[in-house]
């Protein structure tokens, strides 16, 4: 284990609490409230701003932009493209969650348009979505990945090189890379798959960490470690999905740099 990398990841958690980054979220309606609450509990400031007439100027005020393609309606699509353009102009980091891109061709059109006129610093998706974007065969069912993770890191690296950004693929193991440095995280609990929006909440946390620190690779690692370790702690206190969802928010709030360092199961490559 690279202790300096882990120490940096823990410090980014502290930076989030110190700086309270403003995370501008254009996300799906199923989990918008969960994303807002988990950001607040993490120490960040959420803004769920998606009106086309407002997003360009609002991005200028933000620490990061989080775009989630889950339930995109036309105004969200137009707003996300305009917001990403503003982010490029004003050098605001952008996190993209390409929800259901392997199942809905329209999502790919939106992603391509964002890259044409804006920018993306981090792509965070499940393993099936990431493998699909990397041009590999993937096993998905709607918004869910049924992929076993074989070849996931290689797909992340290929996609990172293709788009020159950090890529994270989540599943039973989580794979993160910037094309040169990589990490494999084995923290977490299957209970995270029993509540709606765990992946969306994680994407929002990636916005918080990337808004707090310029090291987007380590920032993404920090967000994933935070979610997974909080999930493990929540599972100790809850035996069903309903109570787990509440405890997850509590455990994100209670997460410390020490807990993040001590509870980590990570391999650096």
TrEMBL record:
Molecular function as annotated in GO: ATP binding; hydroxyethylthiazole kinase activity; magnesium ion binding
Keyword vocabulary terms for this entry: ATP-binding, Kinase, Magnesium, Metal-binding, Nucleotide-binding, Thiamine biosynthesis, Transferase
Pathway: Cofactor biosynthesis; thiamine diphosphate biosynthesis; 4-methyl-5-(2-phosphoethyl)-thiazole from 5-(2-hydroxyethyl)-4-methylthiazole: step 1/1
Lineage: Bacteria, Bacillati, Bacillota, Clostridia, Eubacteriales
Reaction equation(s) it catalyzes: 5-(2-hydroxyethyl)-4-methylthiazole + ATP = 4-methyl-5-(2-phosphooxyethyl)-thiazole + ADP + H(+)
Gene label: thiM
UniProt binding sites for ATP: 124, 170
Entry EC no(s): 2.7.1.50
Protein name: Hydroxyethylthiazole kinase
Cofactor(s) this protein cannot do without: Mg(2+)
GO biological process: one example: thiamine biosynthetic process
Similarity annotation: Belongs to the Thz kinase family.
Annotated organism of origin: Clostridium luticellarii
Keyword Magnesium on entry: yes
NCBIfam families: PRK09355.1 (NF006830), thiM (TIGR00694)
Function, as annotated: Catalyzes the phosphorylation of the hydroxyl group of 4-methyl-5-beta-hydroxyethylthiazole (THZ).
InterPro entries: Hyethyz_kinase, Ribokinase-like
Presence of the UniProt keyword Ribonucleoprotein in the record: no
């Amino acid at each position: 284990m690279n202790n300096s990398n882990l120490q940096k990841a823990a410090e980014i958690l502290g930076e989030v609490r110190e700086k309270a980054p403003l995370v501008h979220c254009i996300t799906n309606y199923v989990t918008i409230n969960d994303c807002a609450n988990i950001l607040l509990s993490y120490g960040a400031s959420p803004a769920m701003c998606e009106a086309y007439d407002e997003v360009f100027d609002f991005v200028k005020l933000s620490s990061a932009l989080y775009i989630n393609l889950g339930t995109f309606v036309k105004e969200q699509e137009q707003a996300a493209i305009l917001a990403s353009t503003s982010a490029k102009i004003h050098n605001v980091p952008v996190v993209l969650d390409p929800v259901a891109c392997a199942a809905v061709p329209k999502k790919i059109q939106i992603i391509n348009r964002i890259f044409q006129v804006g920018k993306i610093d981090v792509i965070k998706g499940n393993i099936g979505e990431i493998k699909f974007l990397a041009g590999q065969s993937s096993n998905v069912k709607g918004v869910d990945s049924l992929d076993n993770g074989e070849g996931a890191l290689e797909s992340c690296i290929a996609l990172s090189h293709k788009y020159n950004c950090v890529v994270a693929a989540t599943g039973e193991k989580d794979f993160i890379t910037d094309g040169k440095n990589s990490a494999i995280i084995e923290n977490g609990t299957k209970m995270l798959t029993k509540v709606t929006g765990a992946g969306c909440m994680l994407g929002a946390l990636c916005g918080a960490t990337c808004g707090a620190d310029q090291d987007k690779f380590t920032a993404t690692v920090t967000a994933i470690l935070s979610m997974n370790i909080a999930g493990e702690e929540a599972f100790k206190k809850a035996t069903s999905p309903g109570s787990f969802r509440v405890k997850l928010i509590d455990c994100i709030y209670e997460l410390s740099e020490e807990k993040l360092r001590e509870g980590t199961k990570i391999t650096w490559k």
